[in-house]
Design a protein that fits this description.
By secondary structure, the chain is of the alpha/beta class. About 30% of the residues lie in helices and about 20% in strands. The chain has 2 domains: about 10-125 and about 320-350, Quinone Oxidoreductase, Chain A, domain 1 (Alpha-Beta Complex); about 140-295, NAD(P)-binding Rossmann-like Domain (Rossmann fold, 3-Layer(aba) Sandwich), CATH 3.40.50.720. The protein has helices at about 25-30, 85, 135-150, 180-190, 205-215, 225-235, 245-255, 280-290, 300-315, 320-325, 335-340, and strands at about 10-20, 50-55, 70, 75, 100, 105, 115, 120-125, 170-175, 195-200, 220, 240, 260-265, 290-295, 325-330, 345-350. Bound molecules: beta-D-glucopyranose.
């Protein structure tokens, strides 16, 4: 690739330090998802990244060389009637004609240098240099929690206080899947005050179950407790954060969602064989228990800001657990390894450290 130049006065050029690899990247490599820019016969990968500013256009305010930066992923469609994109909310684009860097119709960040408009860039404090690459996968739960907080204004959601004592944290959350999205989600839920459980396939101890121990999340393996048993252990499940993309698992747990509960789906499944689902139980509970099922994708600038704030807090509370999320760092000439294997939790490619 030719090194990019500033295209306009509001552009910023940054050098890429690290790029994270996720399931979406692996699907793109398997030609199951994603698309190159129009007219191109290849796509530069990379939508999770951390960079360092090297040059700013004359009209850019608030950025200088040396600043650490994480860009958002999605860019708006051009339809004047798309109220979401026109309001800077391309994460809710109506037309589907948005682009996504490194995923859909727009080259990504796995290059030495990147140029982007300052409006899509987010400041990362210097103390997060080693883990800032986790910001993008963390935005998924941040966007979800922003929506849950709005949704739950429909009822008295505050926890009751005992006489003479401050309100205790009463809400219970179950995370499905102890991969990077699930573990970052669990951390955000703990910081948001939820009593949080991780429900995942492998038997403890694993790298992921140890991280759960460190952050105060109870790890339950599917091999130890079936869904009904897990639900009895937890009590009223106020929130489920699904982070595996396995439909039979998700719909099984949907059946034990609690009263006034919200079930958040974030996984994008591949094809799965059909399984029977007790639709009458699900529909009856949705109605009689005031439940919500919420799908969520991509993230706004505000979600990135929340993610950066939260990552700072995670790092203050649990530095070892946050570092343990990054299980592999690969030099650029070994880029194929993390794109071909699912080993470890979060693998990153070092582009220009
Ligand atoms: C990315 C999102 C993107 C989604 C669908 C995810 O891996 O994190 O930014 O919207 O894929 O393309």
């Amino acid at each position: 690739m030719e090194a990019p130049k500033l295209r306009g006065p509001k552009d910023v050029k940054f050098r890429i330090l690290e790029v994270g690899v996720c399931g979406t990247d692996r699907e793109i490599c398997a030609f199951e998802y994603g698309a190159p820019p129009s007219g191109a016969d290849y796509l530069v990968l990379g939508h999770e990244c951390m960079g360092e500013v090297v040059e700013v256009g004359p009209e850019v305010e608030g950025w200088k060389p040396g600043d650490l930066v994480v860009p958002t992923v999605r860019r708006p469609c051009t339809d004047p009637a798309c109220t979401a994109c026109r309001a800077g909310h391309q994460d809710f684009c109506y037309t589907g004609r948005y682009t996504e860097r490194g995923i859909n119709h727009y080259h990504g960040f796995m290059t030495e240098m990147v140029v982007d408009d300052a409006q899509y860039l987010n400041h990362v404090p210097a103390g997060l240099r080693g883990v800032g690459v986790l910001v993008e996968p963390l935005t998924i739960v941040e966007k979800a929690l922003m929506q849950v907080n709005l949704l739950q204004q429909r009822l008295p959601w505050q926890c009751a206080a005992e006489p003479g004592k401050p309100a205790h944290h009463c809400h219970k959350a179950v995370v499905l899947g102890a991969g990077p999205v699930g573990l970052l989600g669990a951390m955000a839920l703990v910081v948001a005050g939820y009593q949080t459980y991780m429900y995942s396939r492998s038997l403890a101890p694993t790298k992921s179950s140890r991280i759960c121990d460190q952050i105060g999340v109870k790890y339950i393996s599917l091999q130890e407790q079936n869904t009904e048993q897990m639900a009895r252990t937890v009590g009223n499940i106020d929130l489920v954060y699904e982070a595996v993309g396995v439909p039979p698992f998700a719909f099984d747990v949907l059946q034990v969602l609690g009263t006034n509960g919200v079930f958040i789906m974030t996984g994008v499944p591949g094809p799965f064989a059909s399984v029977p689902v007790d639709t009458s139980r699900i529909m009856k509970d949705l109605v009689l228990k005031n439940q919500v099922v919420l799908g969520t994708v991509n993230a706004s600038r505000e979600a990135f800001e929340h993610a950066i704030g939260d990552l700072n807090e995670f790092y203050r509370r649990w530095p070892d657990a946050v570092n343990a999320l990054i299980t592999g760092r690969f030099p650029i000439d070994r880029f194929e390894e993390p794109l071909q294997s699912t080993a470890g939790i979060k693998n990153v490619i070092e582009v220009g450290v």
